[in-house]
Amino acid sequence: MLRLVRSSKKAGLPPGTLVHVGEERTEAVQLTMIAYDEARFQEDEVKAIEACFPLKDKPGVTWINVDGIHQVDILERLGDYLLIHPLVLEDILNMDQRPKMEDFDSYVFVVLKVFGYDDQDDKMEVEQVSLILGPNFVISFQEKPGDIFDPIRKRIRDSKGRVRRMGADYLAYALLDAVVDNYFVVLEQVGEKIEFLEEELVTNPMPETLQIIHNLKRDMIFLRKSVWPLREAVGGLGRGETPLIGDSITIYLRDVYDHTIQVIDTIETFRDMISGMLDIYLSSISNRMNEVMKVLTIIATIFIPLTLVTGLYGMNFKYMPELEWRWGYPMVWVIMLAVSVAMLVYFRRKKWL
Fold this sequence. Notes:
Elements: E1 30-36, E2 41-46, E3 61-67, H1 72-82, H2 86-93, E4 100-103, E5 108-118, E6 123-133, E7 137-142, H3 150-158, H4 168-203, H5 207-238, H6 247-313, H7 328-349
């Protein structure tokens, strides 16, 4: 189940106040810097953010990745050096931020949501990723280390693909594409879970199944909330309205936009399927109850005439027909068995059994 971010600590503070809003963390922030062009490559893990400041004067492309954003002073120093607006820094620190894209002429700010599926705990996890695209640099901010950007780092190290020959705008596209492609991985896992639940609903619906359905429905709502605004952000980047993104990159961004539309369509399909699963669950429970009631009704119906017979012969009257008859007791049994068999045959012909 996805966590809810409590934003109440921001209430009453002036705009631009840098406060981390999200899960409390105590581990140290990790800073990595990758500088490259077609001919050179350099990767360093830096201890202080000041070591990244010369990026403006370096040729080629510089990618700074910040793992852990709970240390506000690091973002504050970086923002002062790069002249990043305080409201942008505030959005980076707010883990409940809506995915969006904002163009500030000298840089572009993008907020994304990265989803993952924890198979061990059987729950979906979400992480916020923020990107700042400059003329020759990209800065990515993440909540924790270990991410989906490792394949991009490997392509840069091995000089595979176009990334080493292109600029910072292509690197930003590659990061966006990695996030959107990861949605397909998550949705594939969700689809497998939905198929399993559909079989379970038809064969053996349990109260725990209903709880799983509600959790899935909640996850789909959160996914939809995160992907719909992402479509607007990617569409804005693909229109080429900012000079920081070249015309040669817009075609790649339009491809990411198409993938985002596919993700949205899949999410909507899954939402409809999960809503239908609630109806299937209620129908299955109702059918099971009807089967039980049918069996109990048939048993009760069969015993009604038998109760009549035994009640009739159990009356304490002195003068009763066949009271002294030798075969009276066996005959009563024959009559009751005959009545039971006749009723079962009648129910079978009516297709009630």
